[in-house]
Every structure is written in structure tokens, then in C-alpha cells.
Amino acid sequence: MRRPLLAGALASLVLLGCAATSTSPEAGAPASPLSQTSQNTQTSQNTQTSQRLAVASPTPMPTPGGPSSPTSTAVDCAVAKCVALTYDDGPSTLTPQLLKAFTDRQATATLFMLGNAAQAHPQIVRQAHRQGFEIANHTYDHRAISDLPDATVAWEVDQTNRVLARLTGQRPTLMRPPHAARTQRTDAVVGRSGLAVVVWNNSPEDWLPGNRSAARITQLTLERTSRNSIILMHDIHPWTVDAAPAIIDGLQKQGYTLVTVSQLLGSTKAGGLYPA
Predict the structure, then answer these.
(1) Which of 30, 113, 134, 239 could form a disulfide with 260 if both were Cys (CB 3.0 to 4.6 A apart)?
(2) Model confidence over 160-203: pLDDT tens digits?
(3) Residue 20 burial (CB < 10 Å; 0-12/13-18/19+)?
(4) Annotated active-site positions, please?
């Protein structure tokens, strides 16, 4: 009679071992940097890691399963050779092509969007946000705010903030005045809306008639980029969007890390001008 009891005990141990195996992480799940002795420990540590990354990133992480983005981890531009590519006046019907060029190469950029264009293309704004691009304010309808009274300047930036916040769930922290037309007065108005003012320190000047080819935009961008540059381009020009793959590849080959403006600047002050 002892043998059936022993066989039953052995069978129970086998079943318990199988049950323990079935609770292990699925194949391909991210492993914790520390060794775990139980599933509960791994789950806790993965949760803590995700929280640390979320705090380090000024922009949302990419959609799960999509390409990873530099915005999902902290970048130290005092160590890394950083450059911030920025695109104004969108979103446009060309913007999804631009987003694909960046996400395919695990790179990112900052998009200074017009409020009226965002209202016209809400799905593109949401896509850019999901994929980890920084969404920033470029006024509502692209007027030179230096010529406008305070109340109108405030409306231009506040209305755009409302549109972008409704579409992304996140208020912008940066604003770029169209044509860089700004004064200390307009900077102060923008600051009261909680935004820092961002211009640029170089550009391939993609609006000039002589620069309207992807090859020319690529050449000028690669020639004019230096460490910690903020580069101005526009995602309403087909030649600029067509140039994006070669620009990203060329900059990465030169050792650059492509970051958002917020990653490059770190903390900013509302109403402050950057680069100073």
C-alpha cells in the first residue's frame, strides 16, 4: 500500500512543478537588470524601472510594440553629441511620412504645430504624440506676434495650447514665434501662458527657391549642424520631408544623438528665450 501513496506524492510534485513553470514570463518579455527569484519580484522591479523611465522622459513613450525612441530614456547632452531637429507649420499630410523616417531609425524630433493645422489633422497629432515626438506651440494661425496686441498674442498661444492639450492630453511647454518675430513684450505674454520661447541657431533655409530639393536640404543640414544645434525645418515642404531619411542617417553616422528640444535644453523658464 505504500507504493501507491509514494506514486501519488511524486505525481503531485510534478504537477506543482508544471504549475510553477506556467507562471514564468512570456518569451520576449523585458528582463529586469537584476536577477529574480520569483515572478512577483520581477513584476515589481519592471514596474519600478518603467516609472523611472517615465520620470526621465519629457515626452510620452512610444506605442508598445512600436520602434523604441530616445525620448523613452534620459539623454545627457553634456556627454552625448546632441542635436535637436525641429519642424514648423504642421501637421500636414506630409507629416506621417516624416514620422516614419524618424521612427524607422529610432530617432526623434520636435514638431512646432499650428493650432489650426492641428485641428485639421487631429489623427496626425495623436500619432506623433503616441510615437514619442515632442509637440510644441507655433501659434494658432502663423501671424507675426510682434505686430499684435497683448490680448491677441495671448489668444494665439492659449487657443493652440487648448487644441494640442485636447488631442494629446498634455499641455505644451515650448512655443516658437512665427518668423522668430518676437520682443521682450511678447516673450512676457507667452510666459504668462506657461511657455518658454524657442527660436533656432541654424537652418537649411528650406523655404528659399534655390534649396527646394531633398539633396540640397540634406547637404545644407549636414554642413550646418554642430553640437547642441537647434535646426529649423518645415514639414509642409515635400523636399524637406523627402530629405529626412538621409539627414537622420548622415547625422547618426557623424555620431550625433537626435533629441527633442526639451531633452537638449533640460529645464526651461516660462517666458525665457532659448537659445539665449
Answers:
(1) 134
(2) 999 999 999 999 999 999 999 999 999 999 999 999 999 999 99
(3) exposed
(4) 88, 234
